[in-house]
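Q: Is it fine to ask for two folds in a single conversation?
A: Yes, each is treated on its own. Send the first.
Q: Here.
A: Result:
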Amino acid sequence: MVRSGQGRRIGVFGGTFDPPHIGHLVAAVDAQRELDLDVVLLVVANVPWQKVESREISPAEDRLALVEAAAEDTPFLQVSDIEIRRGGPSYSADTLAALHHEEPDAELFVILGNDAAAGFATWERYEEVAEQATLVVVDRPGTPTPVDPQFDWVRVDIPELEISSTELRARVASGRSIRYLTTAGVASAIADRGLYR
């Protein structure tokens, strides 16, 4: 992808990350390479407003520690606590505005999994998100995610990995292994913090 400006190209990959798994990491790595991003920020939601009513969410500081463990060996992945520091519900429009304020010349790319991309129009102030950043959907090859056609989307193909944070939480709760479904560091941090038991 051709660079259009002088500033850094920053991928913004937000999520609850409860816990992070290899699907998240593959999406971030493939997007970084395909879009020639200088960095991918893994932005840990403080209060994920779309999920908070549906289930119990692990404390933000625990989820932040898990993402730090997941990203520790990949230099272009940076963990961001910007939404945790801001407090309250996490809205991508606010996060992008803050990132633009910190680095006005940066070119921002919001990286979305297929579920998030398909539901983009349900986001709080989604029009502002589309104005502030390039929208990127990570797709499985051959099965394009249906997205809102009023916006321009960039598609990045990633391998089909049927894995979810829900599955990892269930496996931990039932005493099954999560080896190879996330990093060893994440698995250790989950055990050390007694999460999902």
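Q: Second one now.
A: Result:
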Amino acid sequence: MKVAVIGAGSWGTALAQCVARNGHEVCLWARKQSVADGINQQHANPRYLSEVTLSEGVTATTSYEEAFAGASAAVIVTPSATYRETAQIIAPFVGEDLPLVLCSKGVEAGTGMVGVEIFAQVLGNESRLAALSGPNHAEEVVLGIPAATVIASSLLETAQFFQSIFASASFRTYVSHDVLGVELCAAFKNVIAIATGVSYGYGFGDNTAAALQTRGLAEMSRLVTACGGEAMTCLGLAGTGDLIATCMSRHSRNRKLGEMLAQGKTLDDFTAETHMIAEGSVACETLSELADRIGVDLPICRAIRDLMRGDMSIEAIVAALADRPLKPEFY
């Protein structure tokens, strides 16, 4: 079948390659004509993962109409902060029943809505929507290095449909019905990865990183369950699995951002150096906003928000977290 992949960054490129390896025709939408030309002429993305030769089944375009024409499914890999805009732009080209899987990670500012909720509000028919998340660094997935992911949808058949599109010997796919839990975990782990990067960049060790990740997982589960998701989702691929990969991998853009912040650099420095988006820089704001609204305690998440804003120094954050009242581990 033909599959439209919307977004030609590193993750979009990796997923396009993953789908094409399974014998599907992929039309990859790129924002820049130079990227589309590179993919069509050299079978490589000149901007992201440029050392990888892409399957001949992958073509590229800057036209939404061309990308969606004749497609049986669509993979959305635009930044989560632009999800509402993306949904509005593609609306004229998306039929009422076209299955869509969302592969970026974040919560909308102001509304606290996750991706599937945004697309359902704009496009309707939530049952044809799914979310994909897991410990999946693009740099490894594109090479076929073994990995696993979870695909969540309110309709089991939709999750299974995308499961079959992506599944291969090197990309193990699981299904879930907990869409909200999967999407919140996906957004939250990026914030904890920034915290881990700050910790290492500041000179702390593995004990500190492990404590931040474990307590970050506790914050994640408090938020997920308070919003109506399932605690067990936090122990799965979208939660613990992605938390481990994003906090500890050399490929992690969010960890790298944290390390750069500890060196006195800024988000703008990170963007200029990597040409990538660290979605935790937005998620720390939107998740803190959501937590304030429903009364959930997220001290690490709020600390990263304050650091990103420039409201607190690393030294002040370390002191504030160390001085928190002692309490049971699980509350």
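Q: Anything structural to flag on that second result?
A: Two points. The radius of gyration is 19 Å. Residues 36 and 120 are 29 Å apart (CA to CA).
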